[in-house]
């Protein structure tokens, strides 16, 4: 039984973390450290968790206790830099749900996040926690960078293809749609129900922070072909639908791709390979990534779906916790 | 002032046709010819048009009068083959909103629609009515094949790029999402509100009938590079969002693309070039196609939006009627 | 042909006013006077109106020209008090879409709006512009208080019942649901897509400003029985569904109610009496109010629907303009 | 550890039952008996439950094994009459989620369901399983009629008011909205996404089968005042929002109502009393009923929310199972 501290945690990912950790058989307590919410109770911030999650007062991030075994950081980018180095120095385990430790190169971080990285030494120590794909030994690392939501939805289906068929690829284009909860809870006119109802919208075209993160991991798998990545808002609250069009230099058989997926995800805890294109709702509320692929001549199309707040954030973070502590990956997640 | 007959017309496109034609200053009357709806009134089928559209009894398609000047066919595929040849023989003008006359090659039609084409001679006579793009002289043709909804959303932004930059293109991938009205009004479990709410779903992957239609028109513009096209259901009733990722062999400047669009759509009635990615809702209820493009190094991303029932069907049909009769293209559409 | 000034007009009602007035055959020009939007163009504020509405620069409300024939005020409550008296003094016609001139009693206004009324003399001069119901001679009045959205949806079906059957009524309860556009465009966390998607919420229970407005008009029709009114947010952008449960002291026949509606709305321009409960979408985008009623023993249930931005605001305002200037009520609205 | 049989179970309530029972610590196995789905697997019918619920073949309702300890019936009305009597005769426990055993009077059943009741003797034996309210000793009964979704949402907040304040009530009107999943999974045109998106619709006005069920239970609590009940479709998949307007003969204090609720629900497992009107989403996915009330002079307004498939069906059924077997009511439901 472990004790958990959550830095941030008053947003949508924090809520999911609370829900999963409350049900988790190896978590004995969870403490939230907030900024603007310090002093409020959990029930003030999340009335829907009344009688579900143990109510308690949110403490201030200015006074983080070192008594916890594991810390989740669910903070706006840049802020984890203020807390994570101390926690790691104190020998604590940390899972960062934000973007501060995902990129390996501090200069790339600075280019995309417009902030100088103040603990670059941790970038090489961390694990990039794409839980179903990573073969790294978690027990020897204290810092996990939890992948972004779009990278999770994009990389899980694409890495096996790149790993086994890079030489056959002409180009790759991923077009992804996310529910609005990905944009967080702070009020903006263009995210109002009145604006988004019946709507859809591309954004950060050719300029999304998740693009260098995806490219970094695809490059590690051997990719040296053109890749583009475009994000959209889907007029729902939750879920990511990612569609990847791979143009091939020469045809690959369905059998070949099937084998690549089988070899990669044979023992993966939360990958479901599908024989029809998945409904987005099949993964909503779950930690699964559903994957479908179709090849016709030199066109390979892959569709993948996740819950952006679960598999794309808190669920994968709990899966990473399970891996860190040597528990079954499914614990607390089914 | 002309008289109009609508074959079919009890579906979503028929409703829109009724609305546009009722407001159109050069249309004096409109008669619906239906199958299962023959004998019902328009208000029975469309209670929402009560007091807006002149109510009248729907006649049977088995007794189509030849007294109309123009016929719109809004029928399930295959059925227009039964009526259009006679109307054309009788010297009538016809705009077919279905797929029966869009493809130039009867064998391609048979491959994708699983029906033998019984009036192949009309395929070469017809105009492919992509209204804002086509430079054909409409006055000398009696048959217009109104483009499909996805082809309209895909071709309008892509044709100028292909026309001017084919040699610089490595590959093209279009990923399009459509509101559920594109699937029509007949009841299916997987199209229920309970199933589609909060949902999204790829369908007909590597196998959509609009793909050969798009390829046919891109080929006419000179395309000889790989093209893929993937369709999805968007969890809304109306609208298409099409995103096209063009990988380039070498960079093109924004200026260059801007010029290509300017040259192509200088006098286009319903093209709006946008400097930010468009909201889907901006075009819903209108006959516009909004287009945005962004180039970064060798990645060109294009976003385009239309109302699938207006620009993607009945609105473009009315625009085609305007062109056929030499009226201002905007007539009845603003 | 008249010239129109719109005070405010950068919100959802302003957008609708622009659309209706642009198409209106008797309006030659329309000028927007804004606060925070002064200096911007209409296309800046409403990109969706590009190429539909004539683009022009929004002027400042601090310099309202007196050259217009009619002024629409579409301002937050309290602000019309600053402009309307001067315009009326200058002999201008004014239609106020806000709440400042709807109540007859300045003390009731102060109680509910927490503002002292500074032009109480205009309250008795104004017409309460419930356009389909009012029999007042509009030509002799210069100020119209355009009814609130909920009062329009509630009063149109209820006034005939009260007028003809007050003595048979035991109690009345109206429960109304509105799309989120009724709450305006300013960003609030609890109105985000992420919060409202799949949601619904009662608000201002026993405490909504539209309640005294409705009661005032019901009292004029003779009501002296208990009335309650409760508002909710519907998880859509547009539309009001109002359901009224009338408990009766003794049964009334369907025939009797039918006659009451017939006598009241025989020549009404935008009332549609329905024989089945209406779909909300039937009125969305239109100026109609659809009404359905059912009596069983001593229970009378009435369902009514409107578009809150059209019939509940700008459409009814245009209908009121038509009545003021003696034009057909439908002008510019079909 | 018990074994469970589910009759029916291929609809939305069956899916929820599967999910709850799979996680339930005292349920060792669950077998589905279907009609049209017999021979299919659970994963065929519910792809979203793949890897979550143990897959197995659906058996035929024509061969129901008597080896289970408890049977849930989740069948269209009328069909439970064919199976329940035999199961009860065999000494089995049964929870019927349909309407066949909810009404006490077989003639009232026949009037509303248009079917003759063939096991009227069971109507008086059964418990009406409004789990949080009922004080009956469950251990001595083998048949539970699980309440309807609307009755659950309506009765839980209203029974305490009727029980303690019947003499002060003038009239009661409940207006309830339900997500479309309440209408089941069989395809109907008017339940398509294209029809229901952005829509709302009253239905079965003055004629809903849940009305006699509600009246029966209110009468048992002492009600002898006018009550009306009107249902609507809410444009979402899941959830019920019920608003009840109680007109009072004389004012009641908030304190008085608070006491009535406290006395009634002091130890209730799944009632959450709220100080602000609840968001519908707070209860979606949970077995809670959230209740808010407001009194002003002689108007008492009550808002209550439930998940129609959980508290309104399968969750309450599991709660009833817990009560039947003497387990903590929360077991498997948090």
What does this structure look like?
The structure is a homotetramer of 334-residue chains. In chain A, helix 1 crosses helix 10, helix 6 packs parallel to helix 8 (210-220) and helix 6 crosses helix 9 (254-265). The two termini of chain A are 19 Å apart. The relative contact order of chain A is 0.15. With 334 residues, chain A is α/β, with parallel strands linked by helices. Chain A is built from 10 helices and 14 strands. In chain A, helix 3 (84-89) links the parallel strand 4 (70-74) and strand 5 (93-96). In chain A, 28% of the residues lie in helices and 24% in strands. Chain C binds chain D through residues 170-171, 173, 175, 177, 195, 198-203, 205-207, 226, 228, 230, 232, 234-239, 241, 243, 245, 247, 277-281, 284, 292, 294-296, 298-299, 301, 303, and chain D through 170-171, 173, 175, 177, 195, 198-203, 205-207, 226, 228, 230, 232, 234-239, 241, 243, 245, 247, 277-281, 284, 292, 294-296, 298-299, 301, 303, 305.
């Amino acid at each position: 039984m472990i004790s958990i501290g959550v830095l941030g945690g008053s947003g949508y990912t924090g809520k999911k973390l609370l829900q999963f950790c409350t049900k988790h058989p190896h978590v004995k307590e969870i403490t939230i450290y907030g900024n603007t919410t310090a002093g409020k109770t959990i029930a003030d911030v999340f009335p829907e968790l009344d009688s579900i999650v143990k109510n308690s007062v949110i403490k201030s991030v200015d006074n983080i206790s070192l008594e916890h075994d594991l810390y989740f950081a669910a903070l706006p980018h840049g802020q984890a830099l203020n807390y994570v180095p101390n926690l790691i120095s104190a020998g604590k385990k940390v899972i960062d749900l934000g973007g501060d430790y995902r990129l390996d190169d501090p200069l790339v971080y600075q280019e995309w996040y417009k902030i100088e990285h103040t603990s670059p030494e941790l970038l090489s120590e961390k694990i990039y926690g794409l839980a179903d794909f990573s073969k790294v030994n978690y027990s020897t690392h204290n810092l996990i960078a939890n992948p972004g939501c779009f990278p999770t939805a994009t990389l899980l289906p694409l890495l096996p293809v790149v790993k086994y068929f890079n030489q056959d690829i002409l180009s790759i284009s991923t077009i992804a749609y996310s529910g609005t909860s990905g944009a967080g809870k702070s009020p903006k006119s263009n995210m109002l129900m009145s604006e988004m109802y019946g709507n859809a919208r591309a954004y950060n075209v050719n300029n999304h922070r998740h693009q260098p993160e995806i490219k970094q991991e695809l490059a590690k798998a051997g990719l040296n072909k053109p890749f583009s990545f475009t994000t959209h808002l889907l007029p729902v609250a939750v879920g990511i639908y990612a569609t990847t069009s791979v143009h091939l230099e020469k045809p690959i058989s369905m059998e070949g791709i099937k084998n690549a997926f089988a070899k990669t995800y044979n023992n993966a805890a939360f990958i479901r390979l599908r024989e029809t294109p998945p409904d987005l709702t099949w993964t909503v509320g779950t930690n699964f990534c559903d994957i479908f692929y179709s090849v016709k001549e030199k066109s390979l199309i892959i569709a993948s779906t996740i819950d952006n707040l679960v598999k794309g954030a808190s669920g994968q973070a709990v899966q990473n916790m399970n891996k860190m502590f040597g528990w079954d990956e499914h614990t607390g997640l089914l």
